[in-house]
Specification:
The chain has about 700 residues and is an all-alpha fold. The protein folds into three domains: about 130 residues, alix/aip1 like domains (Serine Threonine Protein Phosphatase 5, Tetratricopeptide repeat), CATH 1.25.40.280; about 140 residues, Alpha Horseshoe (Serine Threonine Protein Phosphatase 5, Tetratricopeptide repeat), CATH 1.25.40.280; about 300 residues, no CATH class. The chain has 20 helices and five strands. A hairpin with a 6-residue loop joins strand 2 and strand 3. Helix 15 runs antiparallel to helix 20. It is elongated and about 175 Å long.
Amino acid sequence: MEAVPRMPMIWLDLKEAGEFAFNAAVKKSAVSVPRDFEGCSTLRKYLGQLHFLQSRIPMGHGQDAAVPVTWTEIFSGKAVTHEDIKYEQACVLYNLGALHSMLGAMDKRVSEECAAGAFTYLRDHFPHSYSVDMSHQILSLNINLMLGQAQECLLEKSMLDNRKSFLVARISAQVVDYYKEACRALENSETASLLGKIQKDWKKLVQMKIYYFAAVAHLHMGKQAEEQQKFGERVIYFQSALDKLNEAIKLAKGQPETVQEALRFTMDVIGGKYNSAKKDNDFIYHEAVPALDTLQSVKGAPLVKALPVNPTDPAVTGPDIFAKLVPMAAHEASSLYSEEKAKLLRDVMAKIEAKNEVLDQFMDSMQLDPETVDNLDMYNHIPPVLMEKCAALSVRPDTVRNLVQSMQVLSGVFTDVEASLKEIQDLLEEDEAQERKLQELLGRVPPAPGSPPGLAEVSKECSKYLELHEKASFTNTELHRAMNLHLGNLRLLGGPLEQVRAALPTPTLSEDDKQVLQNLKHILAKVQEMRDQRMSLEQQLREMIQKDDITTSLVTTDRSEMKKLFEEQLKKYDQLKVYLEQNLAAQENVLKALTDANVKYAAVRKALAEVEHKWNTTVQTLVASYEAYEDLMKKSQEGKDFYTDLEGKAAKLLERARAACQASEAHRQQLLERELKKQPPPRPTAPKPPMQKKPLD
């Protein structure tokens, strides 16, 4: 896999700057940076100086020295203006991340550092209401994309360095985890509406990469099994890798040639590995091949580093050009307080993410969708596809009658042909019987000379027509069977809608079953309520942290009192933290209740699944009958045309048969008369003498 062609990566456009009442030369050098690492350095320096400036001069939103700041929003191309210097900082941070993404996509891909740091700092330290391209959803998407692509670079480097198979598998699994998070963000309706057209392209690429790198992970798990001489495990891992790669290939339609080359190369590697492993196991090792779900899942190893952003680091920002304007102590204290807030947020988010991971895994295993947990509503309506067929037949009320009449006409012609051919057969058989009688009478076995030749031709042609009739008879029988199969369904579709609805299966639930369903839906609603409350509390915490600026207090506070001030200020978050702790603690009880409810739901779920299967089958059968109508009519017409032609030929042949039989009979009479003339008349016999009467005594 070391020589596998590289997959393309996503990079972000830079925002364009507009109005900002700042030194023109400084502004120009900061917004028109070169597309290289020197440009990144320039943006970091500019960002740091803006931070120094805003900590000394009241240029924030609603402050005395605030001036208009204008930047172009990426997705709409519209100019967005805010009188807030933090907006300038936020846009510079965005461009720093975007420039890193651009350079990463073009780089040799040997560095684990990535652009996620700039977007993470922007998400955690700035308001999300400046513009849609810097909303919380878009920034979270960018972070996961950048982390995934950085981990992808690390994976390429690890394969080039021939690192151990298990480590490569874990690195690849982490690529999948990051891209799954990005895909969830892309599937969010709000994110999709913000991204517009580009969302589909990104989603297709990310979904394809999820399956591709899952295949790479299982390929290397198979290699590890091979190294450990676990030949049964090797087969199943390579099989799984092949399955996932095939899914990636399906999703790669429309992707550039570089993607297709990578997929073909990987298919050669995995396909070869699988075929070889299976053959060896079948003929040499004979090890049992375990089910994939019985093996330990591959846990990702997040080894990439987000480039840290520290606006006050002098090694990055250079000397503070505003150092004389505001006491540095206040600035340093503000940074320390920001770090305390960031630490608080990290601690809370670690707990939230841990609980969310458990919840997501649990819900995935349950496969319970609150919206379709019972599907009972669908049985109250005729599905649109069936309504469409009913509507089509309602404007064609003669559909069934036309089909029946067409088949009746076909049957009539069929019967006429059969009768004609039967009569011809009877005539030929009668003639043959008369011929045998004549031969017996005359004492001759060979046919008499001068017999009419037409009968042999009639017999030959009759045999040909009988063969055609026999073949067509099977087709005709099948056509009638098909018509009888679909006729009832067509009558149903053309009848009242109430009858159609009554023909569709519906579930029959007892009161206990309904109570089980209601209880399950209630608990699922509780799960969603818990999720929503958790997201709301998290959002409140983030917004509260972003708005929490105690710079004014810091300027007037003695350095020795800073720690005490921090502690007092951080108490404002205690109530939110309590609510979040209660929410997280409630999860265990909610999931236990859901488990119990799901156990009771199992029988109801099975019954509903069976009814749904029957319902779908019935719908498909009715639709198939509608779609079969035109074909039946066409074949019926073809049958009528065939038998009409055969009927004409059979009628003509019958006339010929009659004429030939009459001629044959006449010929036999002539022979009989000739034979009778040749025979001598019968000899006269002498009369017997009269009996003498006995004289009377």
